Amino acid sequence: MAIDTQVGEELKRKMTCIVCPTGCQLEVQRDGDGKLSITGFQCRRGEAYAENEILNPRRVLTTTVKIRNASLPLLPVRTTEAIPKELLAEAMQVLAQVEVTAPVKTGDVILANILDTGIDVIASRDMKRVEGVA
Amino acid sequence: MGEKTHYDVIVIGGGVVGTAVLRTLSRYQLKAALLEKHAEVGWGATKANSGIVHAGFHNKPGSWMAKLCVAGNQMYDQLCDELDVPFLRNGLMMVARTQEEEEILQQFYQQGLANGVPGMEILDGDAARRLEPNLAEEITLVLRASTGGIVAPFELAAAMAENAAANGADVYTEVEVAGISHGDDGFTITSKDGGTWKATYIVNSAGLFSDDLARMCGLDVPSLIPRKGEEYILDQRVGNLVRHTIFPVPTPKSKGILVIPTAEGNLMIGPTALEMPYKDELSTTAEGLDEILSFTQRLVPKISRRDIIASFAGIRSGSPTGDFIFETSHEGKAVHLLGIESPGLTAAPAIAEHAAEMLAEGGLSLIEKPDFNPRRPKVIRFKQLSDEEKEEVIKENPLYAHVVCRCETITEGEIVDAVRRGARTVDGVKFRTRAGMGRCQGGFCTPYVVKILARELGVSPLEITKRGKGSELLTAEAKSFLKGGETNA
Amino acid sequence: MLNTHYTDVAIIGGGPAGLAAALAARRAGAEHVTVLERNHELGGILQQCIHNGFGLHRFKEELTGPEYAYRFIPQVEADPKIHVYLNTMVLSLSPEKEMTAVHPVHGLINLKAKSVILAMGCRERTRGALSIPGTRPAGVYTAGTAQRFVNMDGFMPGKRVVILGSGDIGLIMARRFTMEGAKVEAVVEIMPYPAGLARNIAQCLEDFDIPLYLNSTVTKIHGKDRVEGVTISQVDDNWCPIPGTERYIPCDTLLLSVGLIPENELSQEAEVPLDPRTGGPIVDESRETLVSGIFACGNVLHVHDLVDYVSEEAEIAGEAAARYALKQTADGVVNGKNGMGGQFTIKPGDGIRYVLPQRVTQGAEVDLYMRVTQPMDAITLSLSGVTLARKRQVRPSEMLKIKLKAQHWDSLLEDGKAQGRELCLAAEPRL
Fold first, then answer.
1. How far is Cα B72 from Cα B173, in angstroms, rounded to an integer?
2. Radius of gyration over alpha carbons of chain B, in Å?
3. Do B478 and A74 lie within an 8 Å CB cutoff?
4. Which superfamily does C4-123+260-327 belong to?
5. Residue numbers of C between 168 and 197 with CB closer than 8 Å to A
6. Chain A nearest-CA residue for C203
7. From B312, B387, B402, residue closest to C87, measured CB to CB
8. Which chain B residues are Cβ-neighbours of A98 within 8 angstroms?
9. DSSP per residue over C124-172, as a string?
10. Neighbouring chains to C with at least 3 Cβ pairs closer than 8 Å
11. How far is CA A53 from the centre of its chain?
12. For residue A93, which residues of chain B lie inside 8 Å, CB to CB?
């Protein structure tokens, strides 16, 4: 559970680390000067995650876009890196308008620099061209 | 919506009785049609019927029930052979556990003799357990009737409608009758969505709603008693716990809670018998399940809650007189079949003959068609074929090599065939082919069945329903909630 | 009569387990490997799991399901000695390792293998198995079926969703539905703790403020033709609904994420004995079942939390199945002992739901996989009194992996703790 206790600039937050399946329970404390102290992590990535969650929470977006001339109507895609969490909904709106045509290879850039994040959206699987399919 | 044809006979209600009547009428040189309010025939009480073909010892001598049950039972071999519907004379057993029950059981034996039921015998508990080793130890006396059987009730109704249609009858689904009037040009039937149908004769086989229809025709009939029954299906793994259908000694209201092998090789337990104030309350309940389990475990102790894979409920039209009710109105031009509760399935083919006789008494001329074809094209059931036959059908049609439903081994070929025979919905495919009836209950195959139905019917998957209008499976195309609208993300 | 084809190693299922097993069998020297896949493409369920989080252990990267599958598929397709049959359903399997399969072009295929690897995966538990009272309207789906509709077929099954069960697929679908513009009203879990991974609770529910109701269940489904709502109730310690706690939630869709069941119908046909705790075959450390030459791996064996472990397990099975096949002479006799042995039985004791493998060979250094019965803060895992490991924060949703080492065997054998050749694995809470 992400539980916040905030007094002025001081903040205490409990959260579950999502970096790996271990799911460590982290605790972050921000003192009055903005300094963070983090406990509960079992690896450095967990420590970095906790810091980011306070300063700049980000998530990898995985979704689909429409595809023509393929055996399926949808192509799975993802962002190459995590994008700011508050942009997820807008990114979904943008990607809902995108339509590509098969063939597509895993890693092909589907949409470059989404919402000016500098991060690309790439195909996460191959999709062969199938003739006779709209 | 409406129909220009003036029919000789319109049958209202496409349950097992209505479809039997329609098929019987399709033997004759006349124009007949069926109106069914659901998306497919056989979807009222028929679909939820236990599938037992009764021997005929349950009913009072001289009653319609006794007469038509024994007569109907004997028609089943030929009927199911002609229509290629699974039917098995597995025999049935009524079991007694106490001296009091033994006495009642003996009375049923005598009643069966009076009704002319062939193939009955009385066995002691041990002799019965030699035939059925999983019967409870406490069972002391058994009435066994070898003519008892099991049939797939929905398949039977669907097959009769299909065969009738092949012989020139028309079948209209999703037509709910709102009014019936009679004038110089015969009957005018109006449907809820504004369609009209015309006919010289009508047959009211509207099951639970046949009392409402009879009243539309001016008859003063007592109200039918809606009686809900819940049933539970067990995994095929335990399908051979018993071979016979096992009955307890009955109560005045119902034949009791039974253990029923189905024509498809599952065991079914139920039904409950709960009188209902409504005709459309079809929910299953935790109490119903507990009641069924505690009763049936007394018959066959190995039955376990763990093996339940599906549940359903149906409403039967309890007869206020305790017997089938046959009425006419409009000088014999309207025939009403009411209160067709158990043994209605067994009696259905005989009821259909009786209905035709009633129509004839009302003046309908019944002249046999020289080209009536009683046979329905055989249904390919891939799983049941030998290896050589499998090879053969795949060569003919490779769709039979695509197994869509893994649990029941149902192929795309069978699903396409079902659609061509009249299936319009996912449940229609399920009840005709068994796709989605197995352990995973459609988890794997539903997306494929939806796709195949859409393709075969030439519509969008969004239009495919579980069981008719209002039960669409899919709400929208992907991304449509995002375009221009708000997201919840 | 049907022509019979011969192969060294036949693998039933081309999902993550089948793919890794095929490559491992080839590396171990099998000359003819056959993969039988019922779908039109390899990859199994991974193809519809478009979210990321796969492969952290194995590839040190966060891959999506399809990307994880594509780490294996091109290698399998490129190997001329791996014969892949797509759109192929295995209809029967005998203990003699003969099977019949059906293929749209080849028709019926009769295949005889020297060894067989079961890699059929699992299926989702359904409503029937749970008997939720109420009507049977459209709009009740298992989470995996909904996942297929949303991610592959391109349709939204509904707009207002309640999810029963907090399994990982359900949690992932809560996020997917929300991202696609639907509203997820609640996730309802009968247990006092979530069934899915903690990270999925965080990133799929908390990120979107989706409420999770623990100690609760759906007690009624409403709606005649289409779901119109559900009643949820709190449950007592015996999982019985508490009267008076009912709450009605309007929705048009109910998703079920109430567990997975290994799909072992074929295994049973081949007379492979199953462990009632895992729902999968009883195996030794080489993943050989009690039927000689039939191996099993992946979710058909036990339901895994991570695909990384599936691959690892499949490689063990693939290698062992290859070795088994190579030992076999033309007339079907295996030289030397059958499989690996596995004369010791490991039984789950206090705090352990299951442990795998269920049989081990004396002295073998093997990884034991297990799940605990309930969440615990700190535990000591011991085998018949010999301490194997200590763990913090264990939950039933996570599979634990512990190495059984030579030194453990020494203690077990020295002290005579392994009497009767039955070992007992227990999780004891530490204060």
1. 27
2. 23
3. yes
4. FAD/NAD(P)-binding domain (3.50.50.60)
5. 179-181, 197
6. A18
7. B402
8. none
9. E--HHHHT--B---B-EEEHHHHHHIIIII-EE--SEEEEES--HHHHH
10. A, B
11. 12
12. 482-483, 487
Distance CA B443, CA B435 (A): 11
CB pairs under 8 A between B and C: 160
Assess contact for B278 and B301: CB atoms under 8 A. no
Cross-chain residue pair A89–B487, CB shorter than 8 Å: yes
Across the interface, which of C70, C151, C393 has its CB nearest the CB of A64? Answer: C151
C47: closest CA of chain B, how far (Å):
14
Segment C56-80, tens digit of pLDDT: 999 999 999 999 999 999 999 999 9
Residue B476 touches partner C, C-beta closer than 8 Å: yes
Find out whether A55 and A62 touch, Cβ atoms under 8 Å: no
**Which residues in chain C touch residue A20, judged by CB atoms under 8 angstroms apart?**
56, 199
Provide, as residue numbers in chain B, all residues whose Cβ is less than 8 Å from the Cβ of C126. 309, 439-441, 443
* Cβ-defined contact of B461 to C128 (cutoff 8 Å): no
Is it true that the peptide bond before C157 is cis, omega within 30 degrees of 0? no
Yes or no, beta carbons of B474 and C157 under 8 Å apart: yes
CATH of the domain at B420: 1.10.10.1100
**Cα gap C166→C182, rounded to integer Å:** 18
Q: Is B291 helix (H, G, I), strand (E, B) or coil?
A: helix
- Structure confidence at residue C339 as a pLDDT band (50, 70, 90): very low
Task: Of A131, A124, A128, A117, give the one whose Cα is nearest residue A58.
Answer: A117
Q: What ipTM was reported for this prediction?
A: 0.90
Shortest Cα distance, chain A CAs vs residue B477, angstroms: 10
- CATH number, domain of B337, equals 3.50.50.60
The string of pLDDT tens digits covering residues B5-38 is: 899 999 999 999 999 999 999 999 999 999 999 9
Do A60 and A36 touch, CB atoms closer than 8 A?
no
Beta strand segments in C357-415, E? 359-360, 366-372, 376-383, 386-394, 400-404
Q: Are C185 and C230 in contact (CB under 8 A)?
A: no
C197/C394 Cα distance (integer angstroms): 11
Tokens of A84: 């700011």
| Residue spans per domain, chain A | 3-55, 62-123
The tens place of each residue's pLDDT in chain A, 134 residues long, gives: 456 676 666 778 888 888 877 788 888 888 878 788 888 888 888 888 888 888 889 999 999 999 999 999 999 999 999 999 999 999 999 999 999 999 999 999 999 999 999 999 999 999 999 987 76
Domain C344-429 has CATH 2.60.40: yes
Q: Which residues pair with A123 in a beta bridge?
A: A77
Q: Superfamily for C126-256?
A: FAD/NAD(P)-binding domain (3.50.50.60)
| Cβ separation C100–B387 shorter than 8 A | yes
Q: How many CB atoms lie within 10 A of CB B430?
A: 26
* Structure letter (DSSP) for residue C204: I
Is B58 in the active site? Answer: no
Using CB atoms, pick whichever of C104, C142, C265 lies closest to residue B443. Answer: C142
CA dist., res. C422 & res. C417, Å (int): 9
pLDDT band, residue B420 (cuts 50/70/90): very high
Question: What distance in Å separates the CA atoms of residue B239 and residue B233, rounded to the nearest whole number?
Answer: 10
Per the structure, the complete domain to which residue B39 belongs is given by 1-87+150-224+319-377
Q: Which fold has domain A62-123?
A: CPE0013-like fold (3.10.530)
Within a domain: B373: yes
CB contacts < 8 A (A, C): 85
Sequence-separated (6 or more) residues with CB below 8 Å from residue C197: A21, A23, C168, C171, C305, C397, C398
